[in-house]
Amino acid sequence: xxAEVRTTCPYCGVGCGVLAKVxxxxxxxxxxxxxxxxxxxKLCSKGSALGETLGLxxxxxxxxxxxxxxxxxxxxxxxxxxxxxxxxxxxxxxVGFYVSGQLLTEDYYxxxxxxxxxxxxxxxxxxxxxxxxxxxxxxxxxxxxxxxPGTYEDFEEADLVVLVGSNTAWCxxxxxxxxxxxxxxxxxxxxxxxxxxxxxxxxxDLFLPIRPGTDVLLFNGLLAHLVRRGALDAxxxxxxxxxxxxxxxxxxxxxxTVARVAEGCGLDPADVRRLYDWFAATPRxxxxxxxxxxxxAHGTDKVNAIINCHLATGRIGKPGMGPFSVTGxxxxxxxxxxxGLANQLAAHMGFEDSAAIDRVGRFWNAPAVxxxxxxxxxxxxxxxxxxxxxxxxxxxxxPAVSMPDAARVRAALKACDFVVVSDVVRTDTTRFxxxxxxxxGWGEKDGTVTNSxxxxxxxxxxxxxxxxxxxxxxxxxxxxxxxGFAEAFDYATPAxxxxxxxxxxxxxxxxxxxxxxGGLADIDDDxxxxxxxxxxxxxxxxGARADRLAxxxxxxxxxxxxxxxxxxxxxxxxxxxxAFPIALTTGRIRDQWHTMTRTGLVPRLMAHAPEPAIEINPxxxxxxxxxxxxxxxxxxxxxxxxxxxxxxxxxxxxxxFLPMHWSGRFAANAAAGPLSTPVTDPFSGQPELxxxxxxxxxxxxxxxxxxxxxxxxxxxxxxxxxxxxxxxxWAYELAGTEPAEQGILLAxxxxxxxxxxxxxxxxxxxxxxxxAAATDDDGRLAEALLVAPRxxxxxxxxLLSLLASGAPLSSLERRALLSGRAPxxxxxxxxxxxxxxxxxxxxxxxxxxxxxxxxxxxGRTLSAGTNCGSCRVEIRGMIEARRLQAAE
Length: 888
Ligand SMILES: Nc1nc2c(c(=O)[nH]1)N[C@H]1C(S)=C(S)[C@@H](COP(=O)(O)OP(=O)(O)OC[C@H]3O[C@@H](n4cnc5c(=O)[nH]c(N)nc54)[C@H](O)[C@@H]3O)O[C@H]1N2
Ligand SMILES: Nc1nc2c(c(=O)[nH]1)N[C@H]1C(S)=C(S)[C@@H](COP(=O)(O)OP(=O)(O)OC[C@H]3O[C@@H](n4cnc5c(=O)[nH]c(N)nc54)[C@H](O)[C@@H]3O)O[C@H]1N2
Ligand code: SF4
Ligand SMILES: [Mo]
Description:
This protein is an alpha/beta fold. The protein contains 31 helices and 36 strands. It has six domains: 5-53, 2-Layer Sandwich (Phosphorylase Kinase, domain 1), CATH 3.30.200.210; 64-130 and 334-490, 3-Layer(aba) Sandwich (Rossmann fold); 133-325, 3-Layer(aba) Sandwich (Dimethylsulfoxide Reductase, domain 2); 582-698, Barwin-like endoglucanases; 703-818, no CATH class; 832-887, Orthogonal Bundle (Arc Repressor Mutant, subunit A). Strand 14 (344-346) and strand 15 (349-350) form a beta hairpin. The radius of gyration is 27 Å and the shape is globular.
C-alpha cells in the first residue's frame, strides 16, 4: 500500500492538513492530518470529498491555440511573443495578469516578479481583490502593514467571539467546530452580526440581524459606548496608538445613542445594548469578520470601525483577543505576502515608498521595476473592454462568473486582442481564451500556502501530472524566459523560488516589515520537502518567538503606533428604490466551492442544495405572488438571472440571497455575477458583492422536466435548466414558459442522439406528459427523460437509484420505466442533510419520531453529524421543530 502524503486542503483559508493515499486502482482517499495544527485531524464535508474530485473528466490535458491542441513550445512562444509585441507597440501598461488565491505562493511570486519587476507594470491583480482587499486596506491603515495579529487558538481562548458578516459554520467549518468545542468547555459567548439568520446565526447566544451595509454605525456605536462606560485601556491608547480623539469624536457624533444605532441598523435596542455590554465587560474578545464586511462599498471603513474598538480596549495580539479577518481562499494570504495585489509591490512593500521600490528593484536586479500601482480587478477588465489593456493572462480564476457585472466582463474578454487562460478544467472563462494552458491541479502541485492565521503549510503532490499538464510556476517562468528574462527566472524547483521569496522578505528588513521569513531563506531541498506547518514571522537567527503579532503594542508604522481611523456611516452606494425594491446579497452555501469546478462533480456535495435557489421571506413572496419551488426571474440594473424560489424566514423582509456558485456549466442563467454591481470601495477597490438592488418576478412556467443521464451535456434553448451530479451521471432539471406540448418537443431533442431502437417512449397528449428511457448495451439504465405540466413530475428517486446501481435492469424494472415510478414502493431518504454519510431529511425525521431527542442520539442511530459537524445545526432545528409540534 502506498504511503500517505501530507498536504493541505485546497479550499478555504482554514488551511486544514490532509493525508492523501493513492490506492492500487488509482483512487484517492483522504483524511484529516491529526498532526496539522489547524485541524488536528478534522475535515469538513468539502475537504473529506476531495478524493472524489480528482477524475480526469473535463480536465485540460494539452495547450490549445484558438481551440486546437498545440505543443508547449508553440503555445509558450506565442504567449511570450504576443506579450512582448504588445509591450513594444503600446507600452507595459497595455498588458495585464489576473491571478488567484488558488495559486501557490511560488506560482504567485514568479507571476508578480514577471509583471512588476520585468514587464515593469503594476497590472497584476488577483481575485483576492473581490475577497480580502478591504481587510488589507483596513489593516494597512490601522497597523501600517497587512497583518492578522491573532491565531486560531484565540478562538478557543476567548470568552466572547463576535462574528461579523461571516457564515463561519458553512465557510470555515473546521475552525467553527473548534470554536464550538471551546464553547462547550469554557462557555464562550458567540454573537453573530448578519442580515440573514445563517447556520452560524442559528446557533449563537446573540443574533443581530443587521440592516445590510450599516456595520460602521454598529461599531461606531460600540466605540462611543466604550468611551461612555469608561471601558477603555487608557494606558494602551496613550502608549501605542494615535488618532483616538478624532475617531471617538466622529463615532460619538455618528452614533450618539444606542437607540440611534438600533434604529439605523434595524436592530432591537436591547440586543445592541447586550452586545455592547458584553464587549465592554469581556477582555477576551475576538471579533471575526469576512465577506459581510469586506465586500462592501464601505468595506475598509467597516474593518477600521471594528479595529478601533479593539485598539480602544488594548485587545490586540493577546491570548483570546483581537480583530480577526478570516481569509477565503487556500492561499489568499500567500498572495498578499508576495504582493499579488496591483497596489502592493512585493513582500509587504508598497508603492508609497520610493526607497522600497528601489530595494525591490535591486533585489530582483530588475531595472524596469514598476513605480506605480496597477489597475485593480474591476478597472483591469474595464481597460480590457476599452482597449487600454490588449493582452490579458488569467490564471486560476473564473472571472466570467465571479466578477461583478459579469456580462460586461465577458464582453471585455471578447473585446481584448489576446487572452491567455491557465486553468485545470474548462470553465465559462476558458471559452474566451486565445491560448489555453493546462495547469496542474491539487494533488499534482508542489509548493506552499499560508492560511488565515499566517501559518505556512505545504501542498505536496501525490499524483503524476496527467497528459501535458504543467505547474503554474513552470508555465510562468517559461514565458518569462522567452520574453528575454531567462536569468531572472532560472528556477529548477519550487523550493528555489521559495528561498528567493524568503530572502526578499528579509532583504534590508531591520524589523520595519513584520512579514519576514528570512529564517527560511536557506532552507535546503530536503527541509522544504519535509517542511512542517509554521507561523510567520520567522526571522533569521531569532529562534523562538511568539505566534501572535503586536502583543507588545508595537506596530509596523513609522512611529510604531497603531492608528485609529475616524470613520462615519455612509448611506448605501446603491439604495433600493421603487424599480428595484429588494436588497439582494450573494454568498456561499455549505457544500459548494465557488464556481463549482470541483465540488459540483461530487454527488454527495450536490445533494444538500441540488438546484440554484433564491431565498426570500414568505411575506415578500406573497406580495410578488411566488410560491416555494416557483421559478423566479431576478433583475438588477446590470443583468438578470433565474433561480428556484426558497421561502425562509431566515431572510428578512425586503432582502434576498442568491448563492454565487452556479456557472453556465451548471445552469442556464443562475449566476450571481451578472446581477452584482461593480461599484467599489474607494480605499480597497473591492466591489460591493454583498448588496445590489433587484426586482423579482414569477416566471410563468408551464412545464417541467428532468433528464437523468450518464452523458455530460450542455442543454440549449431552455428558459431554465440546472444540473446536479448524481451517482452514475447527471440529473438535469428543465423548465419552460412555452406551452407544455412545445416543452416536450424541446426536451425530446436532448435524447435525439440515442438510437431509435434503444429509446422507449410514452406520450400522453391529453395530459401533456412525455416519458422516454434508454438502456445501454449491458441493459443498464442510460437515460430517463420525464416531462409534465408544472407540478406533475413523478418522484425521481427510483430512477436515480437505477442509474447509481449500474446493474442491468430486471424485466419488471424495464416495464416500470415508462411509468417513471418504482415497481415496488421504496422509502425515500429525502433531501440530503448530512453529506458525509449521505443521510436524508426523511431518515432523520424517522429517527426523531422514533425517539432520538438530541443531535448526539441522531448521530448514534444514523451517523449523521458525526464527522464534520456542519449539519448539526440543521438536525438540532429538526428536533426543535418536532418538539414544538408535539407541544402544540
Ligand atoms: N462552503 C464554502 N466555503 C467557503 C467558500 C465557498 O465557496 N464555499 N469560499 C471561501 C472564500 S474564498 C471566502 S472569501 C469565504 C467567505 O466566507 P463568508 O464571508 O462567511 O461567506 P459569505 O457567504 O460570502 O458571506 C458571509 C455573510 O455576509 C452576510 N452579509 C451580507 N451583507 C452584510 C452586511 O452588510 N453586514 C454584515 N455584517 N453581514 C452581511 C451574508 O448574509 C453572509 O451570510 O468562504 C470561504 N469558504
Ligand atoms: N456575486 C458574488 N461574486 C463573488 C463573491 C460573492 O460573494 N458574490 N465572492 C468573491 C470571492 S470572495 C472570491 S474568492 C471569488 C472566487 O471566484 P473564482 O476565483 O472565479 O472561483 P473559483 O471557482 O475558485 O475559480 C478558480 C479557478 O481556478 C482553477 N484552478 C484551481 N486550482 C488551480 C491551479 O492550481 N492553477 C490554475 N491555473 N488554475 C487552478 C479552477 O479550475 C477554477 O476554474 O469570487 C468572488 N465573486
Ligand atoms: S474547513 Fe473544510 S474546506 Fe476549509 S480547509 Fe478545512 S477541510 Fe478544507
Ligand atoms: Mo474569497
